[in-house]
């Protein structure tokens, strides 16, 4: 990380350390349909939220958002979700759909893109189908639990952001209490499954990933520091370690190498999204880097982490599963896709510097193509 980068991160971490977890803008907390009975602690948090909005506004040199929303109307918490809009218990398909949506299935599915090849490489071929099934089901339930709890904790933010406003909680299809219960049950089932059929390391990593995502990232860092993306990558890259540990009972240098690839990779992946939805994040008072720092600073980080991603992917080549390293299938794929990823990252930065339309979703989609191809190569390598 660059020296100037460290400066902003440290400042962010300090801010994160002194402010409480809930740090939304005035607008977010006073939306007409977020009518809650307001206990004194919540009122105090709102005062803190105004401080953070001010912090964000100061850094971006934008005027402080006016407090124009209507005052909160005290109602019982159970009335938070208007009964009319809740999914009727009789409509089984709609109920199932809403609960599945809580697990963010697209993200669960994508996390598995990295887990399966890691397991194959660790096993030097196709691992036992039983173990694959356990890790896939246990891992999906764990990621689903982590996501459902994230939906519960972030229901206020998700309501304010356009991108997330159709999720089950902001759309009032599931009550917050049901989402919380669902997330906790899924979490317990997933960890029990891993404990019963894998080993302690894989189980411990699974539990740690859930707790880390929901407590360290969602409750704390996401709302308080632009370093949220960096630290959030730890749990995003954890499935690689979980898969490897489930097969071997340990973690080798190659496992850590693959972890590093996903960890660095998620920075350009997420920053591209954060540039695209910068206004959303700003409205919700979330200090994502593009909201609180200059575009120049974001550009530097996109390039830095894209290069680190490619460097880590190439470093995995000689490591492999044993002294022989990985085959040229993997090595050449890492080089070619790496060049393409870097070309796209530099293209985005070039457009930003020239003041052209940035089209960040081009990089976002490229990051996905890159990681998918790279991990297909890992799997292919395990088969040869
Ligand atoms: C490593 C940690 C990761 C982080 C921090 C991350 C972050 C995110 C975020 C915040 C979103 C937006 C979610 C939404 O709109 O609901 C997203 C969407 C997406 N991510 Fe990731 N992601 C990670 C891993 C992955 C992986 C491993 C892949 C696949 C190779 C992937 C591919 C995608 C795709 C395709 C979408 C779009 C989903 C959709 O349109 O429904 N992500 N990611
Ligand atoms: C095995 C296991 C438990 C793995 C957990 C993996 C997991 C769910 C990783 C997500 C990583 C991450 C920082 C996502 C962004 O959340 P966000 O809240 O910023 O995204 P949003 O804005 O779309 O809600």
TrEMBL record:
<feature type="transmembrane region" description="Helical">
    <location>
        <begin position="130"/>
        <end position="153"/>
    </location>
</feature>
<dbReference type="InterPro" id="IPR000537">
    <property type="entry name" value="UbiA_prenyltransferase"/>
</dbReference>
<feature type="transmembrane region" description="Helical">
    <location>
        <begin position="228"/>
        <end position="247"/>
    </location>
</feature>
<feature type="compositionally biased region" description="Basic and acidic residues">
    <location>
        <begin position="35"/>
        <end position="51"/>
    </location>
</feature>
<dbReference type="Pfam" id="PF01040">
    <property type="entry name" value="UbiA"/>
</dbReference>
<keyword id="KW-1003">Cell membrane</keyword>
<feature type="transmembrane region" description="Helical">
    <location>
        <begin position="298"/>
        <end position="317"/>
    </location>
</feature>
<keyword id="KW-0812">Transmembrane</keyword>
<dbReference type="InterPro" id="IPR006369">
    <property type="entry name" value="Protohaem_IX_farnesylTrfase"/>
</dbReference>
<keyword id="KW-1133">Transmembrane helix</keyword>
<keyword id="KW-0472">Membrane</keyword>
<comment type="function">
    <text>Converts heme B (protoheme IX) to heme O by substitution of the vinyl group on carbon 2 of heme B porphyrin ring with a hydroxyethyl farnesyl side group.</text>
</comment>
<dbReference type="GO" id="GO:0008495">
    <property type="term" value="F:protoheme IX farnesyltransferase activity"/>
</dbReference>
<feature type="transmembrane region" description="Helical">
    <location>
        <begin position="200"/>
        <end position="221"/>
    </location>
</feature>
<keyword id="KW-0808">Transferase</keyword>
<protein>
    <recommendedName>
        <fullName>Protoheme IX farnesyltransferase</fullName>
        <ecNumber>2.5.1.141</ecNumber>
    </recommendedName>
</protein>
<keyword id="KW-0350">Heme biosynthesis</keyword>
<feature type="transmembrane region" description="Helical">
    <location>
        <begin position="323"/>
        <end position="342"/>
    </location>
</feature>
<comment type="similarity">
    <text>Belongs to the UbiA prenyltransferase family. Protoheme IX farnesyltransferase subfamily.</text>
</comment>
<feature type="transmembrane region" description="Helical">
    <location>
        <begin position="174"/>
        <end position="194"/>
    </location>
</feature>
<feature type="transmembrane region" description="Helical">
    <location>
        <begin position="107"/>
        <end position="124"/>
    </location>
</feature>
<feature type="transmembrane region" description="Helical">
    <location>
        <begin position="253"/>
        <end position="277"/>
    </location>
</feature>
<comment type="pathway">
    <text>Porphyrin-containing compound metabolism; heme O biosynthesis; heme O from protoheme: step 1/1.</text>
</comment>
<feature type="transmembrane region" description="Helical">
    <location>
        <begin position="363"/>
        <end position="383"/>
    </location>
</feature>
<feature type="region of interest" description="Disordered">
    <location>
        <begin position="35"/>
        <end position="74"/>
    </location>
</feature>
<dbReference type="InterPro" id="IPR044878">
    <property type="entry name" value="UbiA_sf"/>
</dbReference>
């Amino acid at each position: 990380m660059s020296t100037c980068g460290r400066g902003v991160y440290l400042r962010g971490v300090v801010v994160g350390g002194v402010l409480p977890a809930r740090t939304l803008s005035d607008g977010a907390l006073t939306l007409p349909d977020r009518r809650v009975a307001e206990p004194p602690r919540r009122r105090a948090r709102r005062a803190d939220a105004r401080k953070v909005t001010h912090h964000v506004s100061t850094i971006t040199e934008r005027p402080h958002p006016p407090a124009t929303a209507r005052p909160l109307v005290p109602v019982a918490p159970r009335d938070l979700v208007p009964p009319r809009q809740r999914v009727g218990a009789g409509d089984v398909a709609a109920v199932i759909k809403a609960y599945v949506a809580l697990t963010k299935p697209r993200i669960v599915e994508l996390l598995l893109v990295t887990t399966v090849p890691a397991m194959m490489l660790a096993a030097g071929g196709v691992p036992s189908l039983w173990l694959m099934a356990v890790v896939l089901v246990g891992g999906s339930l764990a990621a689903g639990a982590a996501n459902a709890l994230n939906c519960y904790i972030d229901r206020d933010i998700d309501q304010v952001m356009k991108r997330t406003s159709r999720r089950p909680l902001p759309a009032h299809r599931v009550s917050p209490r049901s989402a919380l219960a669902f997330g906790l049950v899924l979490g317990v089932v997933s960890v029990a499954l891993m404990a019963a059929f894998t080993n302690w390391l894989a189980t411990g990593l699974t539990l740690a990933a859930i707790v880390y995502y929901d407590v360290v990232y969602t409750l704390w860092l996401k709302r308080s520091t632009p370093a949220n993306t960096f630290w959030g990558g730890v749990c995003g890259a954890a499935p690689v370690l979980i898969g490897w540990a489930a097969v071997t009972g340990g973690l080798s240098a190659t496992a850590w190498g693959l972890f590093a690839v996903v960890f660095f990779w998620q920075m350009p992946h997420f920053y591209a999204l954060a540039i695209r939805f910068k206004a959303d994040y700003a409205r919700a008072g979330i200090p994502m880097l593009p909201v609180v720092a200059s575009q120049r600073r974001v550009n530097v980080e996109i390039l830095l982490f894209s290069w680190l991603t490619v460097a880590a992917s190439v470093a995995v080549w000689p490591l492999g599963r044993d002294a022989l390293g990985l085959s040229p299938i993997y090595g050449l794929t890492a080089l070619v896709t790496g060049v393409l990823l870097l070309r796209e990252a530099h293209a985005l930065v070039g457009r930003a510097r020239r003041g052209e339309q940035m089209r960040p979703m081009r990089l976002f989609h490229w990051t996905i193509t890159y990681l998918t191809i790279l991990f297909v190569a890992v799997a292919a390598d395990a088969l040869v």
